[in-house]
Amino acid sequence: MQQLDTGDTAVLSSLELYGEHVGEPTAAIYQRFFAKYPEAEEMFAHDRPTEERMMSSVLMMISDLADHTTSAQHSIFWITDHLAWDVSRDMMFDMFEMIRDTIRDGLGGEWTADMDAGWHDLLDHLKPAMDQQIAELEGYRSGPQAVS
Ligand code: HEM
Questions:
Q1: CA distance 90 to 111
Q2: Which of 15, 58, 84, 107 has the fewest CB atoms lying closer than 10 Å?
Q3: What are 1-59's pLDDT values in tens digits?
Q4: Which residues line ligand 1 (CB under 6 A)?
Q5: Pair 64, 70: CB distance under 8 Å
Q6: What does the domain layout of the chain look like in residue ranges?
Q7: Which residue's CA is minimally distant from atom 43 of ligand 1?
């Protein structure tokens, strides 16, 4: 298996430590998310099981990115249906930041500089792939562009 760098190992440790010392992050993440985007709670139709299934997929995706089981390119397929459901780019980007912030705040003094750097790198890798996918889909949405 490929050797993981310090940052990726630190991301995995942060998730593991949170699980051991704080518990399940799902409720805290959605609390943060819905405080900023109250309309999103309506978009989920207040359906907790769906929210929970989604968050376990999102957290799994972050672990798979950190341990290189998957790549950024293979982690953006869900954007197609989310855009169709009117989930905004800001919501998508903020969700990942809010997951990181929830883990960081929950770990408190156990959060390390390596974790900070590892999360920063992971999100820095993912965001351009997300942006490209969103731009392509928005191009389709607005119809064929005139070629001059
Ligand atoms: C705000 C309104 C949103 C709604 C209504 C919504 C809805 C859903 C639904 C219904 C699923 C399928 C869950 C299942 O039954 O397995 C899903 C999956 C998922 N959502 Fe969302 N979502 C929202 C926002 C977001 C945001 C902001 C992100 C950004 C991280 C996101 C990322 C994902 C991912 C990665 C999956 C898993 C896809 C898969 O593995 O199949 N969603 N979402």
A1: 26
A2: 84
A3: 567 899 999 999 999 999 999 999 999 999 999 999 999 999 999 999 999 999 999 99
A4: 40, 43-44, 50, 53-54, 57-58, 61, 78, 82, 85, 87, 91-92, 95-96
A5: yes
A6: 6-141
A7: 54
